[in-house]
Amino acid sequence: MKVLKFGGTSVGNADSIRQVAQIIKNSKEELVVVTSAVGGVTDQLVKVGELASKGDEGYAVLIENIALVHQKLYYDLLGQKPGEELHKIIEQLTEIGHGMWLLKELTPRSNDFILGCGERLSNLILFDYLKHENVKVKLFDSREYIVTDSHFGKANVNFKMTEKKVKEAAKSFDKVNLFPGFISSSELNEPTTLGRGGSDFTAAILAGILNVDNLEIWTDVDGLMTADPRLVKHAHFIEHVSYEEALELSHFGAKVIYPPSIQPALRKGIPITIKNTFNPEHSGTLVTKNWKDNNQLIRGISSIKDIAMVTLSGSGMVGIPRFSFRLFRSLSEAKINVIFITQASSEHSISVGINENDSKMSVAALNKEFALEIESGRINTVEPEQGLSIIALVGNNMKNQVGVSGQMFSVMGKNGISVKAIAQGSSERNISAVIPRLDLKKAVNALHESFFLSDYRRINLFIIGAGNVGKAFMAQLGAQNAYLKEHSHLDLKVIAIANSKKMVFDQQGLPYSKWQDHLQNGEAFSEFRPFSI
What we know:
- It is built from 16 helices and 21 strands.
- It is α/β, with parallel strands linked by helices and 533 residues long.
- Helix content is 39%, strand content 22%.
- An 8-stranded mixed beta sheet has the order 3-5-2-1-8-10-11-9, sandwiched between helices. Strands 13-14-12-15-17-16 form a 6-stranded antiparallel beta sheet.
- A hairpin with a 5-residue loop joins strand 13 and strand 14 (349-355).
């Protein structure tokens, strides 16, 4: 038996759902299939609650749009209007929305009911389509089997009760068994949800209880990469990682899986495969506990683009207990997630990295918490430092290896990248650094080239001046480029050319033969133009 989880992009349109159905039909094993809401629908449902609670009638227009999206999906797949069950879900959504509009109130319980409608709708459409394709399929309502407490928004699962219900349901399983992800119910039969990454969590819970052979996470990428391919053109696909490496890579920007969600599978040692719905022939990334690796030092380079750093500092902190406790308590009470932590050994300062959107709220919370110390001069006023990113090296084999951090910071130093803060976990699987956001792309590429030895070392050139000397230099580069690649393993790219009137930029490199045409059609010259390489 296998558990397959399909994300929002995998059920985003009729062609995608047909592809999902084909993947299911091609499997010879008994399957449990978990689906997310249609891509973008959950965001619309969030907006429904916000508008209705403000008395804005625009909520009804959003519900109508959501209904039309699913009705069109149904018609495109089955050539007929939706059945009664789909209309019933839309009617329930409309009634709850109208009640919130009348009361101008959005309760956590009502919000969970609204947000859960997306998964119910997508699961129902897939169910009816599979039946239409003559697949032996059975539909289960996850709210009847995933039992939680009443902590709405991110409910805690009662694994004992859930296990009992799921094992009872398994007695009546068919060839394919559908469960909507994300949704659940409390012991009092109240609608709850499992929070961010909830569909992955549903799949991992079912995989753990049923002790399946494999958990497959189907998304829109082939698997984990050595770096973000949007930043690093030559990033490599990763065939195999450990659970710990996958968790580290996912925490630092690789959004393929959400770390807390896979814990039930991790505890049982169930292999997890990350696969591409739109390229099912690709093997995907396999995540396991142990394997015979190739002793590669670094498994991947990950990053978080938009962060801010807040620092609590002052001479009054030295040797005084409870400052750390108060800092993290105040951030916790303000519901601010801490991404990165570092503290000076002198105890003079503690810095934390947070999502940039949370910077104002975190500063307000900390300045309120330490108001007396700030007023007396023992602590400095907390100010956010914005425009930052985090870059992290991840790999099991970093442990006890000498020189990894030295190589990392040497590479960044040679490329003129300023490091604002540094942290390394005691597991030694991760070395993280806070750097200016404008340097993120350059840092990731430089580190990727250093740790994942490229056949060629790329050098980006800016040429200011396109007169006789500039023309001669471009001609020399064009003539020598092939020789330098073959004999010196250098890949020279002219990514910017300017004269006194015009300038042109191309991150992939300007052609040596027709660069003058590109310059002539370039933009007007200015003394400063932000440009990230």
